[in-house]
Design a protein that fits this description.
Layout lengths: L13 E2 L9 H7 L7 H20 L2 E2 L8 E3 L7 E3 L6 E2 L16 H5 L6 H16 L9 H12 L4 H6 L31 H5 L4 H10 L2
Parallel strand pairs: 1-4
Antiparallel strand pairs: 2-5, 3-4
């Protein structure tokens, strides 16, 4: 686990493990009445977060819990950010936990019990960017089974080789590799590959859709 005092300051983009009273991205979304933000503002937030992730990647560090609540605005009215809460973080060659990430931002490899690395933070980034655009989580599963169902609704069923090697596959798939059917509290059943990412985001900006898609690969 990382030392709580660990702190990097590249190009005025800061992150550390200290809790700050500054506004976080979730609170910003809430203050905006969950209506989402312009792509120009999202792009500035994205650039700042990517700078953080690039430095983490260079140091072989996985944050393991990237989400809007853990991204603070450095100053009100500024797009400079501070990434906080390294309580679950680890080095990629020295993993501490097998079950990490908050549910809405949890990657398929973590859900399925597969080996994971720094790309899981990019997955979380893609989910954050989508939420900044729409105002709501991209994959709002009520529980873990529906979480994977939400992901498969947009991205389709994972390849057989991944399912077969997943240590937690029986929770989500039957013996034939078919996703277990689940109905949520609103009576909704999610069908794999039934909508595109563009439809889920209600966005036609190809550059933005392509970037989020790459985050979720």
């Amino acid at each position: 686990m990382l030392n709580d005092g660990l702190r990097f300051c590249p190009d005025q983009v800061y992150f550390d493990a200290a809790v700050s009273a500054r506004l976080n991205l979730y609170e910003l979304i809430k203050k905006n009445n969950y209506q989402g933000f312009s792509l120009s503002l999202i792009r500035r937030f994205c650039n700042s977060i990517v700078k953080c992730l690039r430095l983490l990647y260079a140091e072989n560090i996985i944050h393991c819990d990237l989400k809007p609540e853990n991204v603070l605005l450095k100053q009100r009215g500024s797009s400079l950010i501070k990434v906080i809460d390294f309580g679950s973080s680890c080095y990629s060659h020295r993993k501490v936990y097998t079950y990490i990430q908050s549910r809405f931002y949890r990657s398929p490899e973590v859900i399925l019990g597969l080996s994971y690395g720094t790309p899981i933070d990019m997955w979380s980034l893609g989910c954050i960017l989508a939420e900044l655009y729409t105002g709501y989580p991209l994959f709002p599963g009520e529980n873990e089974v529906e979480q994977l169902a939400c992901i498969m609704e947009v991205l389709g069923i994972p390849p057989d080789d991944l399912i077969n090697t997943a240590t937690r596959r029986r929770l989500f798939f039957d013996s034939r590799g078919t996703p277990r059917c689940i109905t949520n509290s609103k009576g909704r059943k999610r069908k794999p590959a039934s909508k595109t990412l563009s439809q889920a985001l209600r966005c036609n900006d190809t550059v933005f859709i392509d970037f989020v898609t790459r985050c979720l690969e």
